[in-house]
Amino acid sequence: LHISVKSSVFWYCLRVSLLMTMTSWSGGVIRDTGKKLMNPFRKAKPGTVKQVDPNEMQNGNSIHSRHGAAPNAHVAKCKQLLQEETCTLSQVQELSWRGIHLSVRPEYWLLLMGHMPCNKGRRDKDLERKRQEYYDYVTQYYNTDSRIGQDGKFVNANSGAVNEDELGMRRQIHIDVPRTNPDVALFHTQYIQTCLERILYVWSVRHPASGYVQGLNDLVTPFLTVFLSPWIPDPTHMPAAEVEERLKKIPEEDLNRIEADTFWCFSRLLDSIQDHYTFAQPGIQVMILKLKDLIGRIDAPLHEHLETAGIDFIQFAFRWMNCLLLREFPLQMAIRLWDTYLAEGEKFPSLHVYVCAALLENWKDQLLQCEFTELMLLLQSLPTHQLSMDDLEAIISKAWLLREQYENCPNHLKK
């Protein structure tokens, strides 16, 4: 293989792959071994589905305890870097790629997104300036006192009538926000829903080439969750009453900062994939075609089976690309995946395609046993709740190895 990234990532991925293969030799539950997997459309027998430990999912770096450095050593190294007068983005990326501990993830995500400077002396000043800029945008574009006037037009107290496009956009955002992550109580509190509306509306008004596109609301959730984590470590299994109580204890100034930081990180993420959300979403179309071609090269039998069954990749992969797998994985697992995505910088869309390919490979045995109806049901609702964090690490490692094998060798993708 042509190794074009840091050797530490290569050896990490290779070590994970070898260890997971050894697990399969010793009878452990692992995908990609030819072992027949459980049919997701039949009721599971007691003990057949591996229960994921919420604490394992919360920290999002269980792989360190089994396949890498001890968690405490990794956390200590991460904290030490934050205390340095200056650091480089490559240092932050290298520590983040294999997963970031809950205790330092907010700061590392701010660094990875370029919202917080690597120079420690500039951080407070730069963050305050950007946060104030967002507050000004809210004042300019969004007002909670806005209403529908007698002429049926949307009226803003600050800037007068809003055009029909902005009115439709505001309405669509208002419809979509309550649908966000329906299984997590955090996103069904009044404050968080209003926060989501402000972020999405301000971003959409400032980006008229794309405006609001359904699915953008999902892309805000990882940032909000991570920046709220000092007060709400894991909202996934938290009752609504406890979520509300914890939100009330967060100082208003901190809530405002969290919202502003979320807006800027969300904006920077979309800057790197802007063509995913412009007219006809060409960026997503390209990624789907790349995934289809990739499966044709790495797994011809699976590719042929999907084609014979009449499955078009766009029928299931569009959502994978549009929402970056946020609807496919439980929230904390998706956040762990995003540790790696954000560490990839502008190259993360490339890795994302290979992660999608690794997902298909993970359920290959089941897919080959299904016909059209069952195939669509499985592909549109993969049983990712059965996966552990170690399984996710194996998928990420396999995706990286596949990219190293095929991305820089285009002839491998030619039929």
What is this entry, summarized?
With 415 residues, this protein is mostly helical. It has helices at 7-25, 54-59, 62-67, 71-83, 89-96, 105-112, 123-141, 164-176, 190-206, 216-228, 240-248, 252-271, 282-298, 300-308, 314-322, 331-343, 348-362, 364-369, 372-380, 389-406; strands spanning 147-148, 154-156, 160-162.
Q: What would your notes on this structure say?
A:
There is one protein chain. The protein is mainly alpha-helical and 415 residues long. Helices cover 60% and strands 2% of the residues. A hairpin with a 5-residue loop joins strand 1 (147-148) and strand 2 (154-156). Helix 16 crosses helix 17 (348-362). The chain starts with 6 loop residues before the first helix and ends in a 9-residue tail after the last helix. Residues 1-6, 20-69 and 147-154 have low confidence and may be disordered.
What labels describe this entry?
disordered N terminus, single chain, 2% strand, globular, three-stranded antiparallel beta sheet, mainly alpha, 415 residues, 3 strands, 20 helices
Summarize the topology.
Blueprint: H1 7-25, H2 54-59, H3 62-67, H4 71-83, H5 89-96, H6 105-112, H7 123-141, E1 147-148, E2 154-156, E3 160-162, H8 164-176, H9 190-206, H10 216-228, H11 240-248, H12 252-271, H13 282-298, H14 300-308, H15 314-322, H16 331-343, H17 348-362, H18 364-369, H19 372-380, H20 389-406
Antiparallel strand pairs: 1-2, 2-3
Helix pairs in contact: 1-20, 5-16, 7-12, 8-9, 9-12, 10-12, 13-14, 13-15, 13-17, 16-17, 17-20
